[in-house]
Amino acid sequence: MRTALVSFALFAATFPLAAADSADSTTIAEGKKLFVREWEAGKPASPGGDGLGPMFNARSCAACHKLGGIGGAGPNEDSNVRLMTVVPVDPHPSELTGHKDKLAKVHPSFVPSGKRLQTAFILHRFGVEEAYASFEKKVMDSHAVGSPEDWAIRISQRNTPPVFGAGLIDAVTADMLRDLVKKQQADGRVTGRVPPGPKGPTGEVLGHFGWRGQTMSLKEFVLGACANELGLEVPGHHQAANPLNPEAKASGLDMSQEQADQLIAFVAALPAPRQVIPADAETAKAAERGLASFNSLGCADCHVQDVGPAKGIYADLLLHDMGPGLADAVSAVSAKQHLLRREGEIDTYINAGSALKVLQQEWRTPPLWGARDSGPYLHDGRAKTLTEAILAHAGESILSIEKFAALPVNEQDDLVAFLNTLVAP
Ligand code: HEC
Ligand code: HEC
């Protein structure tokens, strides 16, 4: 018991305070202004752009990322992002490409350049043009009716995660993740895989960010969020296309390269969450017992405490099969899909049947740092409480979760008391 107490306290003391000290404080302060800036149509931050939109999900980054402070998780369904996707009913992907024209009529983003089929995209909540509201309603109604074809249109939800400590996650290397995969293979309890990224001149780049580990780097995610969530034209990323006028081009950049760098620097410098040991001795003891069962139940097989520079992250950042209950119509990216994409082939499901099912059930283990302040939980925000989130686990985590479910309620509460010591910075 004594040694446990000591290491518990030590670990709290070694939590990193700030992620990055490479950018200077002025740059970070300017970046923060851009993160909280309420964007308006026609008012770009750099001359020549069109400001907010034409498509957007909110007016600022901070409108969604706000629980426990600027950069936190999203509070409710209003901060979820909706994805629209088409899946083959009898999984044979070649069928989908034959329906391009029909799908383009449902939503032009199914065939963005008029050529390639895109099987998943963000269905925006808002458009600058007044006519968007009725277009969006029509799309949602047609989805509700279903498709009388051999394909089905589905809507998925993505919960807003916190971005605290993002600079540390960005600094995790592919080798660190590969070592975790090897360790899991040797231990034989869980089988994570590194989210695949494209092969560049310097070797393989891993996926880091997002519920599927689908995005390579913090820079890419931040710029993608500007383009997709706020409709900003930024260096390297075009603002999301307007389905009412798919061919229209942006008039110019909404944010200069310098401003984009400032925003990235701000997010990279957001401090990591902390561990706060409860002042009252009873709760502190409960949390300590909770940490012990977190380790003994096998939660820590996936929710690994430290990954490289990300100390106290409680996530291996690998993809795991979480079972059919957590399946999503949009699948995690397979290595083969990447290959096809690179060769300019169809961007669609190439793995039929059971392989497709597994991809639909795969999620990146989310960091549990800051868990107290990041509810609702899970990729679609379906779990209101930590206990609900835990009990929704299956697939690779089934043994661990069965053990958790079999614990007396007071011991389950201890584990939750431990998770509640992990708070926003
Ligand atoms: C409408 C709500 C919303 C807005 C606005 C928004 N985000 Fe997000 N953010 C999300 C969601 C949802 C995800 C998870 C997406 C996924 O994984 O598919 C996310 C994920 C992220 C991530 C990755 C975190 C991780 O660990 O995987 C970063 C970084 C991020 N957002 C930054 C930003 C920035 C910067 C802005 C402003 C330019 C922004 N977001 C605006 C909802 C939002
Ligand atoms: C096989 C790997 C694995 C194991 C074992 C595992 N988890 Fe998870 N955990 C995940 C994944 C992956 C998710 C995300 C699933 C989703 O969003 O659909 C998750 C999500 C969570 C969440 C929600 C986090 C959030 O931000 O939404 C909590 C809390 C959690 N796990 C706690 C636990 C506890 C406690 C245990 C042990 C009883 C455990 N997990 C065992 C992989 C695992």
Structural class: mainly alpha
Helix content: 25-40%
Query: Which compounds are bound in this model?
Result: heme C
Reported for the largest beta sheet, the result is: 3 strands, antiparallel
| Outline | globular
How much is the radius of gyration in Å?
A: 22 Å
Mean pLDDT across all amino acids: 88
Number of strands: 11
Unreliable residue stretches: 1-20, 338-352
Number of helices: 17
Residue fraction in strands? 5-15%
The neighbouring-strand order within the major sheet is 3-2-5
N- and C-termini, Cα separation: 28 Å
Write the element-wise H/E pattern from the N-terminal end onward: HHEHEHHEEHEHHEEHHEHHEHHEHHHE
Textual characterization of the structure:
The chain contains 17 helices and eleven strands. With 425 residues, it is mostly helical. The N terminus is likely disordered. Helix 2 packs across helix 10. The chain is globular. The longest helix has 16 residues. Among the domains are: 119 residues, Cytochrome Bc1 Complex, Chain D, domain 2, CATH 1.10.760; 125 residues, no CATH class. The strands form five sheets. The protein has a three-stranded antiparallel beta sheet, with no helix packed on it. It binds heme C (HEC) (2 copies).
